[in-house]
Amino acid sequence: MKIILISPSFGSHTVAPPVGLGYLASTLLDRGYEVEILDPAKDGFRLENAGEYIKKRNPDLIGVSILTPRYNSAKRLINEIKLALPDVPIVVGGVHVSALPVHTLKELKLNYGVIGEGESTFPELLNTLQSGGELNNLKGIVFDREGKIHVNEKRPLIRSLDSIPFPAWHLMKPGDYPPIPHQFFFERYPIAPIITSRGCPHVCKFCASAEFWGRRYRMRSAKNVVDEIELLVQEYGVKEIHIEDDNFTLVKKHAMQICREIVNRGIDIRWKCPNGVRVDGIDRELLQLMKSSGCYQIAFGIESGNQKTLDSMNKNLDLNRVRQVVKTSKDVGLEVHGFFIIGFPGETYENAMETVRFSKSIGLDVVNFASLAYLPGAELFNERVRNKGIGSIDFSDVNYFSPTSTDELSEHEIKQIQRNAFNSFYMKPEVLFNHMKKLKLKQIPYLIKMIQNYYT
């Protein structure tokens, strides 16, 4: 049976190998399936010809991973596939499906979806479909039977992450990807993203991570993680690693074990945490070990420079602690990246300007002034749906560049604050010069596209 797994990355301004599909592919390969991963960011096909492009590969079943910012692309892709391959089953999965299983299957007019981690569920679903077995007792799926959507009991989280085989890197070779990884800038190429843990115990109102990965923090062993890094270096020529955990440093001991393992094996690798970590638990000892193992940048999810706004986010973060940790990170020799949200409900114009001033006062090298994204599964999304209905959310605009108005700020005001913040931070000669030094020639067209997102 031939399975094609697709990441609908059409039009993305930064792209990386889809690690989640890589894990899924490796578990399917272990069970004897023929598997191919298609990623338009790498393979170059367009939405307009996606159906015919996939048809030539003659799949028996197609899996599509859906992140909310890519929902509209996934919807169009699925329609193209249906036209070209009307008899081939399509299974959807990912964070969006897991948070909105009934809504997703109804709107996409599909029969099957996987909820949560798919490494055990998807192979079982395939086996059940092949054998004509009963779907009612299969944990972790949603399915349509004669127009009625059934959501089955959730599957327990995978306890031992070491039991999952490494992602199928031979199906998504890092060197085949364009030089526009997560957070854009890098030091060395090729680059590979990895995940060393799953789950987050924190309850930030804007975050949907726990809907998919759960609140229990589960970690791969340091040996398992560094075995994968070594494989990537030796077999695929990878020179830089991006750790994409929701919070790599949550358990200091675990992070330090990985760093020591890299040092002890003498692996020549550069790495960073572009997805961001919390300030909690960060200290000089950990930062120095990160630096000595090849880390050159750390990103912090700061979100606001106004303590009242932070508290309303359930961020549980002290701004004085932020200042201290940013200074220590800089003292150790790391570049520091800060994430901020503009337009959180309840935030006034003056609150937002406090955030802009704070971002410029603490010595950050890189900043992101993102719009609030109403992500399915997040508490903030659920509140909005309860108050205004799911029709109040336009999934084509659920991203970090398209503001949603609040009672305090209009879309135009939020966008204007973002633009002014971007200009005031990056147009300083020394900041602009430092970023231009990091820019690779092949990245220039992509950088222009990124900047346009701030100005359109």
Task: Outline the secondary-structure elements.
Blueprint: E1 2-6, H1 19-30, E2 34-38, H2 40-43, H3 50-55, E3 61-65, H4 71-84, E4 90-93, H5 95-99, H6 101-108, E5 112-114, H7 121-131, E6 141-145, E7 148-151, E8 191-194, E9 197-198, H8 209-213, E10 218-219, H9 222-236, E11 240-243, H10 252-265, E12 270-277, H11 284-292, E13 295-303, H12 307-312, H13 319-332, E14 335-342, H14 349-361, E15 366-371, H15 379-388, H16 411-426, H17 429-438, H18 444-455
Parallel strand pairs: 1-2, 1-3, 3-4, 4-5, 8-11, 11-12, 12-13, 13-14, 14-15
Antiparallel strand pairs: 5-6, 6-7, 9-10
Helix pairs in contact: 9-10, 10-11, 11-13, 14-16
Provide a concise account of the structure shown:
The protein contains 18 helices and 15 strands.
